[in-house]
Amino acid sequence: MRLLIFGTGVIGSLYASLFAEAGFDTTVYARGARLETLKKKGLLYLKREKVTKANVSVLSELKDDDEYDFIFLTVRENQLYQALEELKTNNSKCIVTMTNSMDDYNEWENLCGEGKILPAFPGAGGRIKDDVLDATLTPKIIQPTTFAEISGMRTDRVRHLSLIFKQSSIPYQIVKDMHIWQLCHLAMVVPIADAYYEADNPAKAGYAHKIMHKTAKALKRNLQFVRKTCGKLSPWKMNIFLFVPLPILTFIMSFVYRSTFGEKFMYQHSINAPDEMRELHKKFYEYMENVINITEAESML
Questions:
Q1: Residue 195 pLDDT > 80, yes or no?
Q2: Is 187 in the same domain as 56?
Q3: 103 pLDDT band (50/70/90 cuts)?
Q4: Which terminus of the chain is less hemmed in, N or C, by CB atoms within 10 Å?
Q5: Degrees (nearest 5) of the Cα angle 42, 45, 51?
Q6: Residue 94 CA: distances (Å) to CA of 73, 89, 161, 231
Q7: Domain count, the chain
């Protein structure tokens, strides 16, 4: 089984190290300063507080006939289309898109080939400091690695991907509709990131009651919108946010923002990828506004 990780930020580096530990033939594709670091030092990561070097190959150029069983696309949303352009002529048959996005998956397949896209989303967080990855998987109960065929069918490649995650000790879940799942995810993470950008001291956002109240209110509103538009939330546990009273949800959000979990899985990405998160903010709320306007127009007919 040959695996390629396209993108070597926190997410790509973590999954690459886990796949390599599990014994898979793992290659990472990198560019720029990160490429030079990987060539010089290798992929270094913390394991039980000890710096370890992952057994991965480092690639700076992907040839069309260089085939992999799965290509894991772990780039930011604002780098997605450039990456798909690079991959469109490669002979590999499956691209696992582990990217924050609300775009139509058919749009991606029109670009890189019909049947190539397998939508997914990682469950991980952390940082790279002094060229060493310090990251971990999100607890399964909160957010396992999530994926599904665009059609929702349980195909052979879905089963093969499940086995890869299982062998790599990566918690995972298979859902019926990745688009709805990603809408729900964005409904949650957009206001979470907004809170950091609005706070005078982002690291202390959890102590700003007005910001936490605004975040909890936006989270409820966004998920109510998705449930009304799509008919359901995915995963089902997202409904809990709708039933918890606003004052209690505000308190819970304050606690999470102040926790080590919040620092690793929320703060780090929001601070390190503000351009991506602000673009996702724009796209999500534009989508929300357009759907509301269309619904109001139809009700007047």
A1: yes
A2: no
A3: confident
A4: C
A5: 95
A6: 10, 12, 10, 30
A7: 2
Shared-domain flag, residues 107 and 6: yes
Residue 167 lies in a domain: yes
Alpha carbons 151 and 148: distance in angstroms, whole number: 8
Residues 13 and 124 in one domain: yes
Unique residue bearing structure tokens 């582990």: 98
Domain of residue 189: give its range.
Answer: 180-295
Task: Indicate the residue among 147, 176, 205 that finishes a domain.
Answer: 176
**What is the pLDDT of the chain when averaged over all its residues?**
94
The tokens for 104 are 């139509």
The crossing angle, in degrees rounded to 10, of helices 209-230 and 178-198 is 160
Q: Are residues 70 and 203 in the same domain?
A: no
Q: Is the pTM of this model over 0.90?
A: yes
Residue 81, token pair as written in the block: 């289309």
SS3 174: strand
94 in a domain, yes or no? Answer: yes
- pLDDT one-digit tens code per residue, 61-88: 999 999 999 999 999 988 999 999 999 9
The structure tokens 């530990």 sit at: 21
Mean pLDDT of 14-42: 97
300 in any annotated domain = no
Mean of the pLDDT values across residues 287-294? Answer: 87
Alpha helices in the chain (DSSP H): 10-21, 32-41, 80-87, 105-112, 156-167, 178-198, 209-230, 240-243, 246-258, 260-262, 268-272, 274-299
Examine the domain organization and report whether 150 and 10 are in the same domain: yes
CATH code: domain of residue 150 = 3.40.50.720
pLDDT at residue 16, as a whole number: 98
| Residue 65 CB-half CA count within 13 A | 0
Look at residue 152 and tell me if it is in a domain.
yes
pLDDT number for residue 300? 64
User: Edge to edge, what strands does the sheet with 50-53 contain?
Assistant: 50-53, 44-47, 132-137, 124-129
